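Changelog note: in this version the structure field was regenerated for every chain. One regenerated record is shown below for reference.
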Amino acid sequence: MTLTKLLKFTKKRVFGLDVIRAIAILLVLCSHSTLLIAPNSSSSIVFAIKFFGTIGVDVFFVLSGFLIGAIILKQIELEQTTFKNIFHFWVRRWFRTLPNYYLILIINIGLVYFLFKSTNINFLNYFLFLQNFKTAQPDFFTESWSLSIEEFAYVFMPALLLLFVVLKRKITAKLFLQLSLVCILIITLNRIYFDLNLSETTAEWSASLRKVVIFRLDSIYYGFIAAYIFKYMPSNWEKYRYMSAFAGGLLFLLMHFYIFYTGIKPNIEYTFFNVFYLPLLSLSILLLFPVLYQIKINGFLNTIITKISLWSYSLYLVNYSIVLLTMQYFIKIDDLSLITNVFCLLVFWIISFILAFLLYIFYEIPFTKLRDSKFIRKRFE
């Protein structure tokens, strides 16, 4: 069975995963909404809502790792681990992710030149996903940081598997799990090293650590571990799903209760956020998966959630740099009344969803379908 046929066979949507994806993008949108409704607020409620964005992106990371990990494991099971097989996997991923990314990148470059006339940003880094590889990325197309992490995660692990092929080692699911765990350990040690060598120039947690590739690849690999458990330990996945959800929910609530009750922030309590928060967040999300995976909802709400899930990638790309920042450029949010701010917020959501729908229907779908074109199939079958 080729990778194309395999993916067609497993194409049926899992509603529980749509729920997870919809939750993730809505958390991101809520976070960005604070920049319109309460841009200068220092209240704990606004801070909590802003934090939704952090949580939402990590939900995306774990979910993406879970889905892609399952595909890689299936390829291993079918012994499709040659360079040709892996390259086919990469091509399919690139047809899914790169067209949208490059289109929005080019639009952002156009907006920068149109609105600000000039810039000293190295755009080539963005085309190569190097804008945040080991340092904070420039204040341009800022939401692209998470896409760099995902791209490197999906290139690095299959490349490791190819290395073992070259070394004449048999590629097994157990090896995949071991490599995932080793990568998580290495990235964790890297964050500890960052924390121990913290200086005033690297003190900005979100830009200098949370959004940097070499510190965040493990977020994807937690999803790989979930995929392994789902595929090779299905009885435990099913049997302990409620216990797992309880543990994940409790960890999530206790961790955030500690943050908001004590009032600690990343620029105050460095070690907690640098070393512990991000892996614990990934783990708490991961533990919720067995229950969320089985969610069933019928009727209109089912349709709405599925649509939001389908549009989520396009929504993520257009809502901030294309819609929100453009609105902020032409509208002085600080000078508006609360009612006008609420109106601007409504406009932000409506335009974001309309653009995401158009991008998904007329651009994302056609490019995604090219993965199964005769031209591509002939080269990998």
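Spot check on this record: The first helix runs from residue 3 to 9. Confidence is low (pLDDT under 50) at residues 1-10.
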